[in-house]
Write a sequence for this structure.
């Protein structure tokens, strides 16, 4: 493996501007992780207009920082308030809050910071070696491979969402349909534009992401639900003791490995991996009854896992061009807007972006570790900023930001429209994630499918005749079949129980 | 590193109900969830989705559906639209088991009015610049939706447009329509 | 939880400062508001109907600097991609012809794209004021070096050929479609989005050949990974003097991409002259000439009337050829 570009990548990261944006990214990430309400996908979406004014690599460094920074920020509220700021920190609540009640909040936050750092760093090392391996097959990826990859990505994300599969697929299909609006790139004819000039150039990704994720979430939070903020627990002695460190070192290692591998799977990501890491620690523990009562491994494992997963979920994006979750989908969109198409070619064509972003994660994790421990007090204060004050600020940033992308009032309307759609989707139980993801992948999926069909002369079995696409088809079939089989098996055993 | 600084003296006031074990905590979260919508919402959603699909099928046919070896502009939209029809019908049939969203509550008016302020903002911005609409929007969100006091609402409504002006007009010189 | 209003406002200010800090680092884009009698009055927007980084964009940026120096106003390059540039062109047509709004127009947009879309959507050169021509860019048909396809006869012998184009309504599509029709080669067009993906498809053996712009092909030709078969230029290119033109091979296919600076219709002669002078000075700068050489662009710095005539001729030729040969560029065949 040629290490020159890796080292050049460090040169990219160490440019003052990139360092600054990395710092801003992780700080904003931690902040929004702490503040209940806005998640990383919404924040990344809202900040998209800002990224248009800087270099692609700088933009992605910042957006990535928000993503993994939020994983850590979410921990703080889990431990102190028993309110998970992010879904990926839900399990941390069990032992983290118990520790806080025993006066060990500091140790819980400290071990989470250390675990996040170790997990994140191990995952970057994995990413460094793994990504070029995939990229070496880059030229073998033609239209058929991209078709199956895009399908696989959408299906995986849809199948692990929090709702039911039918609803996730509906959201994805709507996203795919939205992506067809505008001029057809193969023939130039207009599709579903209803004579509106602005639609002839296809729907812009930014207003959709800003609307569905950003405004949709703000509108959803307007309905009073369970946000009676409790006063945080007192934090004392942030550094964990030597004994606690020793006790949790194994958990950090195992959590990192679990997180890394689950993060690679599209749809896996941070949430699933933190659950898996917690369950695994509990299972292998000699006295599992300690879990839920303030076991430090119960904080260390899921926190290492969710950070490792957040990092490794960049692997499918940077090597295959397939976003693994909603936040990464928004980052994918940000790259496309910058004129950079993520995919197997990325590491060859834009080594500066690839290695710049990867290496920025080392720095970002160091920032997180350095900042989190002394800044915990500050974050506790920030928790007292009322949602009532933040909401209008966020709304105005979103609306004004939407205008600045294309200097168009039409775009603000689109943001409002998709804000309403995002809210309604949440209300009826449709997840916005698959919609945005499918919208992002829609153009790639359709054009690859059409190119493949032209190349195969209309014969769909052509997908099976190529080694890589054939393998991918097999994985696709397994992904579809597995939940069905599991469900059948489950319902059978349920029937037995009833009998 | 200075651990002392983190010793923030925050009043350690315990939450109203302290759940001890994991199970109790999960049960409590379940209780605090807003009331779920029922199968009727699922039926309505499924029907709407199927209708969207039907509209898509009609639209795709007018674009030309082509064939497998010669895909036309309508081929792909047709595939998705048929998918939407099928998925919509599946949701209707499985309305009871497909998982529920949330009921629309009395509070939903807050969402509608919040959205209305944004649309009003959008309509006004091209005419009179962003400052006054932004102040009005901020005031409404602070006072009515946020239940803030008069004083802080007024201060916030004045301060926000000023700060946004400094950022977007003075510092960034964007083309955002402005009056002043 | 009780917090005093001042404390809340402090927090508010904190968030605002954060937002300020965030966005202040971003830099910004400038624009001018009003039109005036004196030219130039503030920034002159140079719109590009393609994504940043493509040939058209690079050309616009190479010219914007020296023109800005000469006229003493900002000349920001604004990318407004969509529909091969039709979107940007449509917007330009509705702007005031005061000289503050210009665009880099591609020949393919008026001559080839207009053959593929309904009449209402076609971009007509008559709706614009031409300031000056810029340069021409040749197309070359390339194959993967490992494929052994080196001449048109090899392609004929291959039976059927899959070829990548850089998109519908481009010179790439027109040139290859015409060649394969005239040479009676059974070709299947696979449209890609631009030169780079089409080139990648050739490199990865996804397709057999592709017609792409010379500047984009040169690095890979030099590296020996792709083989040039023919160029679609009028004369052999200096750089590739051993590669025949399609005409030499006996197929009358001459397709090139040309670019011009245009403004909205009915610009005043004085403004046109002032702009043309500024661009002419830009053409004479060393940096710009080096840029042309590096990208194998042939200068075609005609004035408005000459350029309109040259382009109208191309438009007519392309229309006749496609009609005679019964080539329908609008479908993916």
């Amino acid at each position: 493996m040629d290490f020159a570009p890796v080292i050049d990548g460090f040169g990219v990261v160490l440019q003052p501007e990139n360092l600054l944006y990395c710092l801003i990214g992780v700080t904003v990430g931690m902040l929004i992780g702490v503040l209940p309400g806005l998640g990383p996908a919404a924040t990344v979406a809202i900040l998209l207009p800002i990224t248009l004014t800087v270099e692609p690599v700088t933009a992605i460094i910042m957006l990535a920082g928000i993503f993994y920074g939020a994983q850590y920020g979410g921990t703080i509220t889990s431990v102190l308030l028993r309110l998970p700021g992010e879904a990926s920190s839900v399990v941390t609540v069990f032992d983290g809050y118990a520790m806080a009640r025993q006066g060990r909040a500091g140790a819980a936050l400290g071990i989470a910071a250390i675990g996040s750092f170790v997990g994140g760093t191990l995952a970057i090392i994995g990413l460094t070696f793994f990504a070029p391996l995939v990229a070496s097959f880059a030229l073998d990826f033609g239209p058929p491979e991209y078709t199956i990859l895009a399908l696989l990505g959408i299906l995986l994300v849809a199948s692990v969402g929090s709702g039911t599969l039918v609803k996730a697929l509906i959201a994805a299909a709507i996203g795919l349909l939205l992506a067809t609006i505008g001029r057809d790139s193969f023939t130039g004819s207009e599709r579903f534009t209803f004579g509106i000039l602005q639609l002839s150039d296809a729907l812009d990704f930014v207003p959709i992401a800003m609307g569905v994720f950003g405004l949709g979430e703000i509108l959803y939070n307007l309905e009073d639900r369970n946000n009676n903020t409790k006063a945080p627990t007192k934090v004392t002695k942030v550094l964990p003791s030597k004994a606690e460190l020793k006790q949790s070192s194994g958990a950090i290692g195992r959590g990192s490995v679990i997180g890394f591998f689950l993060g690679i799977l599209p749809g896996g990501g941070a949430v699933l991996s933190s659950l898996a890491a917690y369950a695994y620690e509990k299972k292998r523990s000699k006295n599992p009854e300690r879990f839920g009562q303030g076991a430090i491994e119960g904080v260390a494992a899921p926190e290492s896992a969710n950070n490792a997963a957040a990092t490794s979920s960049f692997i499918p994006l940077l090597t295959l061009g397939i976003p693994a979750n909603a936040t990464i989908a928004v980052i994918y969109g940000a790259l496309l807007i910058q004129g950079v198409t993520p995919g197997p070619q990325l590491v060859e064509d834009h080594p500066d972006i690839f290695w710049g972003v990867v290496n920025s994660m080392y720095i970002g994790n160091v920032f997180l570790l350095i900042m989190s421990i002394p800044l915990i007090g500050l974050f506790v204060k920030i928790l007292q900023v009322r949602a009532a004050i933040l909401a209008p600020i966020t709304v105005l940033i979103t609306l004004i930001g939407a205008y600045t992308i294309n200097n168009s009032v039409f775009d603000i309307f689109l943001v409002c429209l998709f804000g309403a759609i995002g809210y309604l989707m949440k209300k009826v139980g449709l997840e916005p994630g698959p919609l945005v993801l499918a919208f992002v992948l829609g153009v790639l999926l359709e054009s690859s499918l059409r190119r493949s069909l032209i190349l195969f002369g209309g014969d769909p079995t052509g997908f099976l005749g190529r080694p890589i696409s054939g393998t991918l088809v097999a994985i696709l079939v397994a992904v579809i079949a597995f939940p069905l089989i599991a469900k059948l098996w489950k319902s059978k055993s349920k029937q037995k129980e009833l009998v | 590193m200075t651990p002392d600084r983190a010793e923030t003296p925050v009043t350690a006031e315990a939450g109203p109900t302290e759940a001890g074990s994991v199970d109790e905590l999960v049960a409590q979260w379940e209780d605090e969830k807003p009331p779920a919508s029922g199968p009727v919402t699922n039926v309505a959603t499924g029907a709407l989705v199927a209708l969207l699909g039907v509209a898509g099928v009609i639209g795709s046919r007018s674009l030309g559906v082509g064939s497998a070896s010669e895909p036309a502009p309508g081929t792909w939209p047709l595939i998705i639209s048929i998918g939407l029809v099928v998925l919509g019908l599946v949701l209707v049939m499985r309305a009871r088991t497909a998982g529920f969203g949330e009921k629309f509550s009395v509070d939903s008016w807050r969402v509608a009015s919040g959205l209305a302020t944004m649309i009003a903002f959008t309509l006004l911005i091209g005419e009179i610049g962003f400052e006054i609409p932004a102040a009005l929007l901020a005031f409404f969100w602070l006072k009515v939706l946020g239940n803030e006091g008069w004083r802080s609402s007024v201060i916030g409504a004045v301060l926000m447009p000023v700060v946004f002006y400094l950022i977007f007009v003075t510092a960034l010189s964007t083309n955002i329509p402005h009056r002043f | 939880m009780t917090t005093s209003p001042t404390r809340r406002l402090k927090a508010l200010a904190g968030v605002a400062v954060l937002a300020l800090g965030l966005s202040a680092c971003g830099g910004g884009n400038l624009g001018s508001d009003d039109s005036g009698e004196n030219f130039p009055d503030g920034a002159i927007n140079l719109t590009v109907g393609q994504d940043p980084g493509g040939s058209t964009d690079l050309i616009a940026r190479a010219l914007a600097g020296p023109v800005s120096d000469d006229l003493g106003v900002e000349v920001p390059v604004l990318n407004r991609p969509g529909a091969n540039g039709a979107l940007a062109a449509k917007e330009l047509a509705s702007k005031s012809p005061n000289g503050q709004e210009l665009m880099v127009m591609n020949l393919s947009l008026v001559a080839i794209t207009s053959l593929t879309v309904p009449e209402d959507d076609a971009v007509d050169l008559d709706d614009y004021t031409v300031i000056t021509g810029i340069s021409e860019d040749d197309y070359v048909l390339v194959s993967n070096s490992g494929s052994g396809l080196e001449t048109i006869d090899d392609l004929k012998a291959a039976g059927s050929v899959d070829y990548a184009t850089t998109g519908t309504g481009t010179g790439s599509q027109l040139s290859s479609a015409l060649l394969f029709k005239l040479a009676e080669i059974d070709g299947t067009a696979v449209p890609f989005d631009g030169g780079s993906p089409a080139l990648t498809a050739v490199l990865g053996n996804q397709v057999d050949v592709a017609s792409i712009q010379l500047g984009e092909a040169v690095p890979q030709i030099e590296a020996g990974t792709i083989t040039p078969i023919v160029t679609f230029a009028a004369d052999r290119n200096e750089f590739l003097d051993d590669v025949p033109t399609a005409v030499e091979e006996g197929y009358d296919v001459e397709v090139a991409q040309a670019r011009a600076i245009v403004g909205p219709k009915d610009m005043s002669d004085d403004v046109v002259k002032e702009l043309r002078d500024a661009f002419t000075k830009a053409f004479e700068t060393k940096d710009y000439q080096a840029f042309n050489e590096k990208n194998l662009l042939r200068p075609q710095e005609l004035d408005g009337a000459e350029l309109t005539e040259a382009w109208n001729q191309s438009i007519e030729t392309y229309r006749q050829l496609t009609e005679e040969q019964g080539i329908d560029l609008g479908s993916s065949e």
Notes: The interface with chain C takes residues 70-72, 149, 151-152, 155-156, 159-160, 163, 166-168, 171-175 of chain B (CB under 8 Å). Residues 108-171 of chain B form one domain. Confidence is low (pLDDT under 50) at residues 1-19 of chain B. The two ends of chain B are 47 Å apart (CA to CA).
